[in-house]
Design goal:
Blueprint lengths: L1 E2 L2 E2 L10 H8 L18 E4 L2 E4 L12 E3 L8 H7 L9 H16 L19 H7 L10 H11 L2
Parallel strand pairs: 1-5
Antiparallel strand pairs: 1-2, 3-4, 3-5
Helix pairs in contact: 2-5
The structure holds FE2/S2 (inorganic) cluster (2 copies).
Length: 157
């Protein structure tokens, strides 16, 4: 498995989730387990640059993919989260940041969301409404949503 640019050799049972492989077998505990059933986004990681919920993925299916966890992220958006108080307890933050990076790439590629008004628009403006919709799979129990939206909006400029 390629994780954060390193080749990792693992001998896993087929039922092990990617989340458990990262946390329990590789010690990469930055990726969090919130619900373990795809509902909270705390476990979001990037696979070949796309965001996924690692609790819903079987590790064996990702043997040949490039996985990036928060430990491998070096992005200005991290400073934006600090500047805008985009967290309180921090439990959701690694998932929020990985998800935001994936979401910004989706937006840059022209992907619309459920609230996009003009699908044919040359450039979809990343309004707070768009950000909230596109990040709706990442919950924050502390309610730091205003800071999270502001941080992502700053990073999109
Ligand atoms: S732990 Fe994966 S979505 Fe909640
Ligand atoms: S900062 Fe506490 S859950 Fe989001």
């Amino acid at each position: 498995m390629r994780v954060n640019g390193s080749i990792e050799k693992l001998d896993l049972e087929p039922r092990v989730s990617l989340l458990d492989a990262l946390r329990e077998h590789l010690g990469l505990t930055g990726t969090k387990k919130g619900c373990d059933q795809g509902a909270c986004g705390a476990c979001t990681v990037l696979v070949d640059g796309e965001r996924i919920s690692s609790c819903l993925a079987l590790a064996v299916q990702y043997a040949d993919r490039d996985i990036t966890t928060i430990e491998g992220v070096e992005d200005p958006i991290q400073q934006s989260f600090v500047r805008h108080d985009g967290f309180q307890c921090g439990y959701c933050t690694s998932g929020q940041i990985c998800s935001a990076i994936g979401m910004l790439a989706e937006h840059a590629a022209g992907a619309p969301s459920a609230v996009t008004g003009h699908l044919a628009a040359e450039q979809i403006e990343l309004t707070p409404e768009e950000i909230r919709e596109r990040m709706s799979g990442n919950l924050c129990r502390c309610g730091a949503y205003n800071g999270i939206v502001a941080a992502i909006q700053e990073s999109s400029r």
